[in-house]
Write a structure and sequence with these properties.
With about 170 residues, this protein is mostly helical. It is built from eight helices and no strands.
Length: about 170
């Protein structure tokens, strides 16, 4: 997926306006994560993972393009370090919080007789792995919703026009 996303960016070159494209790819990525939460099939999970990787590759391209276009050259290193620090700091935090929430809260709640078995379990299923699936559904849906809200925001869509190019 990452390779295909990279090839897509090289061949296509991407759109002239990066912000709407980023929000669109982020929406698709969130929806793929949410669909993975419903999946009981390896095939569906692999397709969702492929879509997430294509979107991730494209999002990284747009992120770098915006950074290089809008940030003065003498600040590229500082901004890249800041983005890398925040990104890398969130990885262990999200793994710790997501794992804890899934293992101790959502998994037991979606087991037979669990707190969510008669509500969420009716449409998501109950049993081993369904709590983690529910977490994927929540995270993916939230990401897609945030991106759709951004798409609906004229100011965010026009962010590239508001911030002058650094070069």
């Amino acid at each position: 997926g990452i390779l295909i996303g990279g090839i897509l960016m090289v061949v296509w070159g991407g759109p002239k306006r990066f912000t709407p494209a980023m929000l669109g790819f982020n929406t698709v990525q969130g929806l793929a994560i949410a669909v993975a939460g419903f999946a009981n099939s390896i095939t569906v999970l692999c397709i969702c993972a492929f879509i997430v990787m294509v979107c991730s590759s494209s999002l990284a391209t747009y992120n770098q393009s915006i950074l290089r276009r809008k940030v003065p050259k003498d600040r590229h290193g500082t901004f890249a370090a800041l983005i890398q620090t925040v990104s890398m700091s969130l990885l262990p935090l999200s793994a710790m919080l997501g794992g804890t929430l899934s293992y101790f809260v959502l998994e037991p709640a979606l087991m037979p007789g669990g707190a969510l078995a008669d509500s969420v379990g009716q449409w998501l299923g109950i049993g081993k792995g369904r709590g983690t699936g529910f977490l994927f559904l929540l995270v993916g849906a939230f990401g897609a919703l945030v991106s759709l809200t951004g798409i609906a925001s004229r100011r965010l869509r026009g962010l590239e026009d508001e911030i002058k190019d650094a070069y």
